[in-house]
Structures are given as structure tokens and as C-alpha cells.
Amino acid sequence: MVGVDFSTVAVQQARRQAETCGLTDRADFRVGHLTDTGLGTSSVDVVLCVDSIQFAEPISVALRECHRVLKQGGRVALTAWQLIDATDEELRRRVRHHDLAVELEAAGFEQVKVVDRPAWRTAERAMWLAAKSVDIGDDPALRSMRDEALRALDVFDTRRRVLATAIASH
Q1: Considering the entire predicted model, what is its pTM?
Q2: Does domain 33-117+158-168 have CATH number 3.40.190.170?
Q3: Which residues contact 41 (CB under 8 A, 6 or more apart)?
Q4: Whether residue 58 has a cis bond before it, omega within 30° of 0
Q5: What is the C-alpha to C-alpha distance for residues 105 and 95, in angstroms, rounded to an integer?
Q6: Which residues contact 92 (CB under 8 A, 6 or more apart)?
């Protein structure tokens, strides 16, 4: 397993967790980006990207990078949010601009499926509601979490949670 994250701190934490679990011989963690992972061409069997593809600049380049690093027949699985009404100009461009089914096909993937995950959405709403109501005191991390919850809840009903899967063809 190879984990890639843009955050040096996250990579260090992942390495420590792998060590705690006795997995250092089976797990490698590296600093990289969605658009430039640093992995070799056709070097992995599976790409898993959890709730971050929408932050790629641009998403099309990140999806081509996923395709590039996958072996022939390799699988990609992405979790993300998609807008219920993609024409809503009030919403931030970062979320509004993508249609994972179209973009995965354009990046060279086959057997593309994008499915709603309503149970994930229900759990996420509960998490944001809990974060909104927590007593933050003078803790900056809790304040940041509460502020994020307020922003998320403000647009929550405009988005759907999805799981996108596809197979790399070469």
C-alpha cells in the first residue's frame, strides 16, 4: 500500500500509525499531490481517493494522474460531493464544476459508475450538527470545526454524497 498526501504532517502520522500496527513493511507513505503523486506509470492496482478529488486543480489533471498510475484493468474509487443542481451560481465553483461520470470517462476510464450514498449523507449531517453545538471554549481547533460545520450545513441540502468507481483502460 502506498499513501500519498500533500501534508507532511499527515504522512508522518500515517507512518507512525503503520508502525504501531506493525505494517511498516507493507505500507509506504509519501508527500505528493492529486495532480502529481510521484508514483510510477502503471505502478498500482487500486487508487482510493476519499473526499478530496474536488480540491484538485484541475480535477481533470488529477483524474488523468489516477489513470496514469493504475495498471491496465486497475480500479479507482472516489468519494465526493456533487451538486444536486449544477447550474446553481450561488455555490462555489470548486464543487459546482465537476461531473465525475463525464470526467472519469474523459480521463480514459471505463465501466464508470457514480452512485448516491444517502446513508453517508445522513451520518455526515449528524456529525456537522454535533460539531455545530459543541462547547468550543477557547480551543481554536474546536472553533475551526464549528465554523466548518456552519459552512457545511449552510449548503448541505444542495449536495449529494457519491461514490464513483471505474476501471483503467490503456
Answers
A1: 0.82
A2: no
A3: 68, 69
A4: yes
A5: 19
A6: none
Give how far Cα 127 sits from Cα of 5, 16, 79, 149, Å.
24, 27, 17, 8
Domain boundaries, the chain: 33-117+158-168
- Over the stretch 71-111, which tens digit does the pLDDT of each residue have? 999 999 999 888 887 776 666 555 655 788 999 999 999 99
Quick count: other Cβ atoms within 10 Å of Cβ 148? 13
How far apart, in whole angstroms, are the C-alpha atoms of residue 7 and residue 44? Answer: 21
Q: Which amino acid is at 46?
A: V
pLDDT tens digits, 7-38: 999 999 999 999 999 999 999 999 999 999 99
Alpha carbon 130 to its chain centroid, in Å, reads 22
